[in-house]
């Protein structure tokens, strides 16, 4: 079984910056998200009898996504305050992975990308938080791609009291010198020709997994791609 690095201690300034960023952004998003969910619910109540099946499904999706985003922003605010709120439930990992993948491939328009994730188990975790962890990892796999069409494989196995979830890609790989830096706040992998994000994806993923009682590390990376491993407690 793989060994895991201890959670890095960020410099005081960086830690305060990320906390302020999370708290401010999450607070400012709460009101518009609440209104989106409220108006979607009102429209469902008023128009349910007049809409066709596809329109109803779209409206329900708007309401569900807004409610999920509300949960995430509340979790981010609690994370910034040092007391993350976790709501564990039984989660179909296969369905969650396919849902996140579908959203990302639609957003990025990478039509040739493929996901291999058959037979993933149900796990007990917070679906919103773990869904965001998957989103960050899959986004990186699509962003830091090689010349080949992106291919991501997700596999899970139980070892003792933990689930080990491995996410592999066929991307350009990560220099071993950056093995731990990739988890530092606001640090960005130096890759020419790629769209640079805020540098908080893997940092946030590790923080959420810590709140869920788990961890993440880069298990392997070379010119053929990278493999991250997530540890989550079974109970």
Automatic annotation (TrEMBL):
Lyase as UniProt keyword: no
Reaction catalysis annotation: ATP + protein L-histidine = ADP + protein N-phospho-L-histidine
Assigned EC number: 2.7.13.3
GO molecular function, one term: ATP binding
Keywords: ATP-binding, Kinase, Nucleotide-binding, Phosphoprotein, Transferase
InterPro entries reported for this sequence: BphY/WalK/GraS-like (IPR050351), HATPase_C_sf (IPR036890), HATPase_dom (IPR003594), His_kinase_dom (IPR005467), HisK_dim/P_dom (IPR003661), HisK_dim/P_sf (IPR036097), Sig_transdc_His_kin-like_C (IPR004358)
Domain Histidine kinase: residue ranges: 24-235
Pfam family, one: HATPase_c
Name used for this protein in its record: histidine kinase
